[in-house]
Each structure stands twice: as structure tokens, then as C-alpha cells.
Amino acid sequence: MKRQSYTPFIAFLGSVVCAAPVAAQGDDELNVLVVVAHPDDDAMFAATVYKITHTLAGNVDLALITDGSGGFRYAQLAEPIYGLDLTDEKVARQHLPAIRKRELMAGGAIVGVRNYFFLDEYDDAYTENIDSVLTYVWDADEVRERLGAIMMRVAYDYVFVHLPTPNFHAHHKAASILALEAALELPEEQRPVVLGSFVGDSENPQFGPTDFSEHPGYPITRVRADTPPFVFDRTQPLSEDGRLDYQIIVNWLIAEHKSQGTMQLLMNAGDIERFWFFEANDPSALAETREFFEQLATAK
Ligand SMILES: [Zn+2]
User: Fold this and answer.
1) Is 288 helix (H, G, I), strand (E, B) or coil?
2) Rounded distance between C-alpha atoms, residue 34 and residue 41, angstroms
3) Which of 69, 237, 246, 294 lies 20 to 30 Å from 47 when distance is taken between CA atoms?
4) How far away, in angstroms, is 36 Cα from ligand 1 center?
5) ∠ at Cα 211 (209, 214), nearest 5°?
6) pLDDT tens-digit readout, 181-237
7) Residue 60: Cβ within 10 Å count
8) CA-to-CA distance for 170 and 289, rounded, in angstroms?
9) Ligand 1 centre and the CA of 3: distance in Å?
10) Is the pLDDT confidence value at 123 over 80?
11) Which of 63, 47, 37 is nearest to 133 (CA)?
12) Cα separation values, 168 from 32, 109, 162, 292, Å
């Protein structure tokens, strides 16, 4: 395992100028960017991220689009931990952004996230309407521009986003669309492969999407019809006797999100992380993406 010698930093894009050293730019390193809407969304890719950083010696950075201030509904169990009335919306809007960033970074320390980019768009409320989020809630141009700047700064090989399935929080879907748009605006040689991910269950086809093709009205979200999703198996053994596996790591990360009560119910839910290849990606990157997941499946 490669020891990571850098110090994680936080870049408050849009508010405070990033004062951290510039990360490695070389093509010889594996660099991955995770783009998520909420501070606990990275649980969707946690096992894959852990193996990238701990076994493949890759770098993983994370861009968080919202401030997470809307996550107060099930914050009850965290109230005595933080000494705050977090189920009160007014209290939550004030304190959750900082609390949830700390929770995200505690989970990130477990899976090996290197750098964080906080865009702090408003985490208003649940909706499935992408247009309302992009038009009225977030500054979509600003987010797209910031994501583009992040992708220009480091030569990312891959960008992980949520698969934008229709019956899903529009924040997740909008974050994925903006990341795709930002990637496609880059010069071709700088363009990362964007993959849409969702947790699945190898035994239960009803758990997680299996037949996604595109989000209606957003052709940029179309995935390659001839390419089944790549799969990371969370039950890959992490100990010789096979009793320890990546599910434990995912559960640790989930446990860090104390303010997100119902999030805890996702422990041990699903045993695979699926990654769909968007049609907008360079088709010639398909072979190396296949090889990447082969490495993720076999590297010890
Ligand atoms: Zn979320």
C-alpha cells in the first residue's frame, strides 16, 4: 500500500481562494474525482474509492455541490452528540453545513479522499424536478464553471457521479448533469471518463436500477446501450480467511454521518457498486475503463 504523504486540504470554491499546493498532474498517476450533491452521497462509491486509494495507490478528490443544510429531518439522534436542536430547521440551516462537512471528511479519511471542493449551493428540499434545481435553486453556470476549473487543475482519469435515474432526488441528477456538461466542455485531451454509479444487490434485481438508458429530456445522461455496467464487488475479501470485506469499510463511512439517521439503515444494504459508461464519453476510453475495473476486481 502506498503511504500518502500529502495533507488533505479544503478548497472553498466560490468563497475562499484555494491556498493548497497544486496536486500531482502527471498522467502516470490514477486520479479520480467524485462529484456528489450531499455530504453522505459518497457512500454509493465508498468501496471502490477505498480500493483505488488503498490498493491501486490512486488519488481521489471530492466535489460537494450543496451545503447539506437540508438534512435535518432525521438528525434527532445526533442532537446530544452536537448539543444542538438539529431537527429545528433554523438551527439546522445554520449548523449542518459545518457539521456535515466534518462528517464527510471523517468518512473521507477512512476511504482515503485527498482533497475536497465545497461549492455550497443551497440544499433546499426533496424534489425530482431537475429544471427547478438548475433554474431556481442553484447557480448552474457557476457550478459548471467551478467543476470545469477543478477538472482542469488535475488530469482526472475518471469522474464518478450518481446514475441520474428518474425517480431520484433532483439534486443528485442535477449534480451528475452539471459534471457531465463540465467534462464535455474541456479540451479533448483533458476530458475524464464520467461514470454514473448506483448501489446494487447481486441477489436482488429489484435493488437499485438495472435498466437505465437515459433520463427523459436529458440526452447527455444516455449510457451506452451495448455496455453493461462495470461492477465492484463489496464482498471481495480484505482478510485471508475472507471474514473481513469492503462492506465493513462502507459501514464505517455511513456511521460517520451521525446527523443522517436514516442513512444508517443503509448499512449492509447492497453488495455491489455498479458504474455505467455514458455515451458522451470518448468511445476509445472504453477498453481502458474495462481494464480499470478488471484491476479493481483482481488487485490484492
Ligand atoms: Zn443525497
Assistant:
1) helix
2) 10
3) 69
4) 8
5) 95
6) 999 999 999 999 999 999 999 999 889 998 999 999 999 999 999 999 999 999 999
7) 25
8) 27
9) 31
10) yes
11) 37
12) 24, 28, 10, 28
Domain positions in the chain: 9-298
pLDDT, tens digit, 9 for 90 and up, residues 221-254: 999 999 999 999 999 999 999 999 999 999 999 9
Find, among 287, 286, 265, the residue nearest to 277 by Cα: 286
CA distance 9 to 265: 30
Task: Output phi, psi for 103, to 5 deg.
Answer: -65, -45
Length, in residues, of the chain? 300
What is the Å distance from ligand 1's center to 264 Cα? Answer: 13
Indicate if the alpha-carbon torsion angle 233, 235, 237, 238 is positive or negative.
Answer: positive
Name residue, grid cell 464535455.
184
Ligand 1 mean position to 145 CA, how many Å?
22
For the segment(s) 9-298, the CATH number from 3.40.50.10320, 3.30.450.90, 3.40.50.620, 3.30.565.10 is 3.40.50.10320
Å from CA of 170 to ligand 1 middle: 9
Q: Could you tell me the CA-to-CA distances from 271 to 84, 109, 117, 248, 298 in Å, in that order?
A: 35, 22, 28, 11, 17
Cβ 83 vs Cβ 136: under 8 Å: no
Q: Is the pLDDT of residue 22 over 80?
A: no
Q: What is the DSSP string of 172-183?
A: HHHHHHHHHHHH
- Residue 28 reports pLDDT greater than 90: no
Compute the distance from residue 5 Cα to the ligand 1 centre, in Å. 31
